[in-house]
């Protein structure tokens, strides 16, 4: 069996597939170099298997399995054990699958695995936990209640045939679960579906496959085999249900969704016909539908995807973000979609397009690198075990072996107006929501209206070939071949002894680092560019808005190129920060060199002649889009709002409050002037990493230097990033009342304790160790016992060498003032008890476990690049931190740590951010302004 499993030639791990006597199939992965182990078990049962009377029970069952077993009866035994050993755990329920997984340090793996296995052997379903976990499910549901995406899903489900098992409310809440007989139902559900023959297990550790196979055998053979068959859902839930549904949205954005139900092509994965379709329809390069509609000012984004609905059917969906004009003319947008569909039908299915996708997929497989996260890797594989034949568990996603024009044509046949559901979502429908024809979805209570697709739309589709561009000369057609497909796969033999990035060039414009990587000898590489342009946008409000707008327009005019790069296997990230912009790119090095040159050239051209790139109608679209973004800022969840306000408050010259930004007005001329001056002064840091020689790096660097020294002056005044300096026993409070989103049921609180400013990198570790010690008791007390909310956790943050320790709670039942009070009481008892009683040997165990987790080596080139690049970005350059980890941890004694923790809380330099729900407000708000009356830390990491 072993030799049948196809793995990448670049994968050095050992794999073994075994089937236990109870028919449980297990994939065993041995990686002698890993410091982190993990396991994931997936069962092919999900919420489509919920009885109609108990919707959400599959999800509820997932929650209840964490609540103790016969062998380990204590409720938080499993979770505490994992947290104690620097691990993490989670579970999730989907339509037809439920998965459970955890990661942990190697030495604790067998202990963790045994606790984990009891979920499937002898769970208690303790009656005393039923009500509490039901509330947890209710909280989880409430978290998504104000989210447009989740609301639309429930409406989509409600459109399906009521007799179909697809017609289920997967999350569940008190309405569907809070019934006297629920425990009996849970036991029945578990007994009916939780059977070893329906489960697949993936385990990953440093032991040999043989040893690991034995461990798995000993533990998991006890999972009962009840001889159950995989539950199948073989109907078409959307038969004859084709209509247009107008949905009242929450956010300031208008969306058009087109859904086409097609047969499920999973068995034809060797030809991936669905991917062919989504590739050609969702393409964003030259001649593409997306590029056309954007330039016409009708849409800002177009995504095409496919999704499995059940064992019988899938869907192809279009997700289209409309501009104002696009919303007023959405029928025309639908017309253009069909013009593209017709064009593809007319030109026929093209082998060269399939070959291009296949070529990149095969290259990705051949040069496949280890995943950075053990958890993510095993999660994906457990899913694949249910999806592909055994030999293709790893290879299946990359197969693309059989060009299958027949299936593609078949799918194209389903993309017709008689097989389409239209969803149009807009906040503007709220005006009519009390009209008779509006209905209400059962669970999220979203208002919507359903009607027949109009004759007008059918006519437009029928005559779609007559539709023409009105504002540009663009056409919709088949896109040309991709110029970024790599051709050269040589690995440079040049010996470079450096382990860490070396500065290879520096002048007034550029500082350039380079590392030819010998740890991962593969034909890939990465680069990062950090640009400090004119700094006016850091200090001036109008300039900040212009800068936000610049980001939008600059990227949107480069999208065709970016998209092609992505199709050629390049991943990129564009980041606008407080005082700089940064780009990072990773991929086959042959492709990134070409891309680098194109990018630098575009950067120069755009700023030399912005007028050439900014068309008047597009400018207006981008202004509207920016306005919507500012408005939508306030529609974010209390959790996200809290994080955003936190950043906004701790930086002196950071982003302005969005309240101020939405007041600013901009004219085209302002924008052109802003853009012309933006890169007239420049300072940059560049980093090349991977299969890139020093000479190549120097050449690219000099090319950049040449281009910019002709166009720009060196930037000698980079703005410092100053962080708030909170005094001892000082508390800053910020309060934000949620008024923008009436559907939001939660409040959110974040309390931060600020530490001292220090250049000593060891300080970071003190905060991490504190987090390891406090997180479990914190969650146990406030989440499990007091049930304050579903999101309850602690975390540390480090900004410019200044640390914060944060307590975060999102709650639907308690006000932020009450929560703050509960946190204070918890802290007092934590200091007096848990911390006071923390013995030296216990502390040493925590240190050791933390060390094991953190000393995990880089798993792939890109992960290593990103870590080094982050050091360069913040100008800290602590590249050898993994090597120094042992020494740094050893320097932290029990006594020093206790002093640190006591001082942190005793000094009480505190920042509280309250995001307050109206229903929780029973006090007068006093702290709604940005904090200005305070001192600021110097920026120790300023680039100079
Ligand atoms: Zn859940």
UniProtKB/TrEMBL annotation:
This is Uncharacterized protein. The keyword Magnesium does not apply. Residues 365-661 form the Peptidase M16 middle/third domain. It comes from the Eukaryota. Residues 769-869 form the Coenzyme PQQ synthesis protein F-like C-terminal lobe domain. Keywords: Hydrolase, Metal-binding, Metalloprotease, Protease, Zinc. Residues 27-142 form the Peptidase M16 N-terminal domain. InterPro entries: Pept_M16_N, Pept_M16_Zn_BS, Peptidase_M16, Peptidase_M16_C, Peptidase_M16_M, PqqF-like_C_4. It comes from Paramecium primaurelia. GO terms for molecular function: metal ion binding; metalloendopeptidase activity.
């Amino acid at each position: 069996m072993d030799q049948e499993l196809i793995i990448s030639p670049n994968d050095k791990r050992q794999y073994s597939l075994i089937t236990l006597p109870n028919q449980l199939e297990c994939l065993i992965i041995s990686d002698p170099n890993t410091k982190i182990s993990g396991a994931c078990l997936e069962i092919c049962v999900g919420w489509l298997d919920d009885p109609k009377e108990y919707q959400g029970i599959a999800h509820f069952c997932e929650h209840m399995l964490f609540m103790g077993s016969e062998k380990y009866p204590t409720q938080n035994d499993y979770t505490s054990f994992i947290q104690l050993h620097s691990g993490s755990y989670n579970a999730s329920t989907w339509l037809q699958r439920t998965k459970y997984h955890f990661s942990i340090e190697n030495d604790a793996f067998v202990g963790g695995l045994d606790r984990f296995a009891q979920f499937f052997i002898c769970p208690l379903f303790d009656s005393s936990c039923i009500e509490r976990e039901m509330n947890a499910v209710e909280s989880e549901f409430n978290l998504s209640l104000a989210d447009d995406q989740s609301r639309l899903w429930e409406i989509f489900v409600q459109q399906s045939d009521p007799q179909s098992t697809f017609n289920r409310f997967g999350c569940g809440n008190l309405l569907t679960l809070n019934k006297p007989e629920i425990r009996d139902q849970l036991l029945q559900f578990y007994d009916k579906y939780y059977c070893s023959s329906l489960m697949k297990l993936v385990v990953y550790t440093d032991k040999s496959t043989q040893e690991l196979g034995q461990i798995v055998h000993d533990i998991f053979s006890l999972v009962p085999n009840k001889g159950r068959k995989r539950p199948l859902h073989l109907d078409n839930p959307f038969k004859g249900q084709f209509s247009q549904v107008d949905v009242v949205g929450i956010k300031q954005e208008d969306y058009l969704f087109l859904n086409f139900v097609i047969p499920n092509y999973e068995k034809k994965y060797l030809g991936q016909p669905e991917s062919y379709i989504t590739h050609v329809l969702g393409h964003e390069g030259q001649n593409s539908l997306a590029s056309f509609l954007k330039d016409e000012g009708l849409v800002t984004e177009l995504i095409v995807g496919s999704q499995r609905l059940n064992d019988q059917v899938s869907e192809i969906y279009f997700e289209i973000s409309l501009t104002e004009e696009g919303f007023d003319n959405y029928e025309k947008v639908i017309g253009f979609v069909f013009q593209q569909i017709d064009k593809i039908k007319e030109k026929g299915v093209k082998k060269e397009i399939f070959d291009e996708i296949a070529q990149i997929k095969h290259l990705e497989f051949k040069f496949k690198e280890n995943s950075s996260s053990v958890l993510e890797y095993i999660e994906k594989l457990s899913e694949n075990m249910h999806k592909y034949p055994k030999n293709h568990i790893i290879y299946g996603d990359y197969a693309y072996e059989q060009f299958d024009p027949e299936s593609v044509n078949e799918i194209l046949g389903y993309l017709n107006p008689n097989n389409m559901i239209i969803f149009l979502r807009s906040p503007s429908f709220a005006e009519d929501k009390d009209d008779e024809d509006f209905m209400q979805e059962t669970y999220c209570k979203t208002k919507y209206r359903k009607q027949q697709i109009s004759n007008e739309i059918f006519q437009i589709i029928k005559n779609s070939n007559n539709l023409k561009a009105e504002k540009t000369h663009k056409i919709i057609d088949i896109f040309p071949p991709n110029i970024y497909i790599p051709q050269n796969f040589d690995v440079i033999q040049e010996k470079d002894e450096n382990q860490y990035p070396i500065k290879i060039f520096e002048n007034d414009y550029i500082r350039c680092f380079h590392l030819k990587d010998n740890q991962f000898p593969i034909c890939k590489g990465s680069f990062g560019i950090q640009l400090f342009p004119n700094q006016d946008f850091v200090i001036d409000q109008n300039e900040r808005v212009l800068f936000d707008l610049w980001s939008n327009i600059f990227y949107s005019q480069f999208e065709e190129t970016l998209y092609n790069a992505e199709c050629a296997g390049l991943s990129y990230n564009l980041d606008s920060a407080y005082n700089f912009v940064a780009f990072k790119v990773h991929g086959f090095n042959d492709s990134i060199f070409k891309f680098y040159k194109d990018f630098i050239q575009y950067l120069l051209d755009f700023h030399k002649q912005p007028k050439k790139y900014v068309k008047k109608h597009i400018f207006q679209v981008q202004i509207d889009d920016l306005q919507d973004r500012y408005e939508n800022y306030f529609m974010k969840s209390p959790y996200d709002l809290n994080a955003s306000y936190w950043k906004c408050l701790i930086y002196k010259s950071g982003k302005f409050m969005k309240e101020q930004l939405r007041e600013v007005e901009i004219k085209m001329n302002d924008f052109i002037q802003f853009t012309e001056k933006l890169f007239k002064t420049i300072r940059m840091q560049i980093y090349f990493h991977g299969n890139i020689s020093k000479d190549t790096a120097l050449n690219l660097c000099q090319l950049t230097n040449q281009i910019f020294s002709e166009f720009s002056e060196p930037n000698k005044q980079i703005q410092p990033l100053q962080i708030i300096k909170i005094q001892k026993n000082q508390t800053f409070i910020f309060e934000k009342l949620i008024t923008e989103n009436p559907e939001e049921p939660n409040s959110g609180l974040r309390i931060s304790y600020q530490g001292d400013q220090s250049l000593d990198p060891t300080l970071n570790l003190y905060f991490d160790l504190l987090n390891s010690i406090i997180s479990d008791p914190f969650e146990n007390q406030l989440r499990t016992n007091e049930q304050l909310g579903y999101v309850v956790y602690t975390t540390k943050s480090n900004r410019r060498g200044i640390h914060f320790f944060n307590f975060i709670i999102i709650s639907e039942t308690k006000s932020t003032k009450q929560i703050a009070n509960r946190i204070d009481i918890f802290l007092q008892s934590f200091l007096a008890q848990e911390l006071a009683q923390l013995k030296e040997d216990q502390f040493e165990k925590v240190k050791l476990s933390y060390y094991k987790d953190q000393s995990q080596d880089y798993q792939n080139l890109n992960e290593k690049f990103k870590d080094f690049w982050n050091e360069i970005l913040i100008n800290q350059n602590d590249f050898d931190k993994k090597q120094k980890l042992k020494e740094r941890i050893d320097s932290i004694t029990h006594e020093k740590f206790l002093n640190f923790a006591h001082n942190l809380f005793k000094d009480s330099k505190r920042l509280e951010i309250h995001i307050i729900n109206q229903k929780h407000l029973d006090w007068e708000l006093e702290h709604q302004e940005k904090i200005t009356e305070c001192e600021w830390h110097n920026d120790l990491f300023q680039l100079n």
